[in-house]
UniProtKB/TrEMBL annotation:
Reactions catalysed: ATP + protein L-histidine = ADP + protein N-phospho-L-histidine
Cell location: Membrane
Listed name of the protein: histidine kinase
Organism: Dethiosulfatibacter aminovorans DSM 17477
Statement: the UniProt record of this protein carries the keyword Zinc-finger: no
Residue ranges annotated for the Histidine kinase domain, each copy included: 41-256
Enzyme Commission number: 2.7.13.3
HAMP domain location: 1-33
Covered residues, full protein: 256 to 514 of 514
Amino acid sequence: INTRLNVKASQYELKELAETFNHMMDRIESDYIKQQQFVSDASHELRTPIAVLKGYADMLDRWGKDDKEVLQESLDAIKNEANNMQDLVEKLLFIARNDKKTLKLNKEEFNINEVIEEVYRETKMIDTSHDITSSVCQGVIIYADKNRIKQAIRIFVENARKFTPEQGKIDISCTRDDEYAIITVKDNGMGIKSKDLKKVFDRFYRAEESRVKESGGHGLGLSIAKIIVLGHRGKIKVKSNYTEGSRFSILLPYIKSVD
Ligand code: ADP
């Protein structure tokens, strides 16, 4: 900051200045392109639910007054689609407002096993069509935002439920190494092709199979999980064999272990 280029700058200084300037412009340009892409992808995602809402409103207008069945069906569909849209808009806002550097964290010390148990219990309650198991590890205390960590694990679990057929297995567990607490959600569902593995954490990315299946997702969950984990200086990993299942892990640095 204290350095100023001499007005009578040398050729070398001018070259350095020009390079710095160009580098800065490259970054501004690439940020701008990314933002444009985000706005365009977000608008595209919002188009479908809006078209569905309009379709049902149209149906109500034409037949809803006389036909009680049409009335109920349309109202249910409108409520459902409005909920989906609300969910989508919340995800878009999270991504637009946060990145790993700006994410605000409400940190506290807690045992990693607490979040495993809480997510396991709530999943068991809402999902009776999968075989859900969990195992805790020798405890470690982490200093992290508990709600955000739970949100990231829930994203893994939600995906495991979506992409694993009924009666399939979902396991939520934890281990530790010298540095990290490792939370893993493993399923024996449809798996991910190796060509898609690198991209699943990208915004709006959905593997072809999930687009065909119309799982209702928008390809935003894993990019939110990634922001949360990187915001904690952690790591996020995936391993998967197509048709056999997937394993998503979060690695978080811990402050101490409790034996
Ligand atoms: P979505 O809302 O589509 O689930 P995500 O960002 O959470 O968005 O996931 C991106 C894509 O990664 C999914 O559409 C799917 O193709 C793939 N994926 C994520 N989790 C799993 C899983 N457990 N099994 C198979 N595919 C998965």
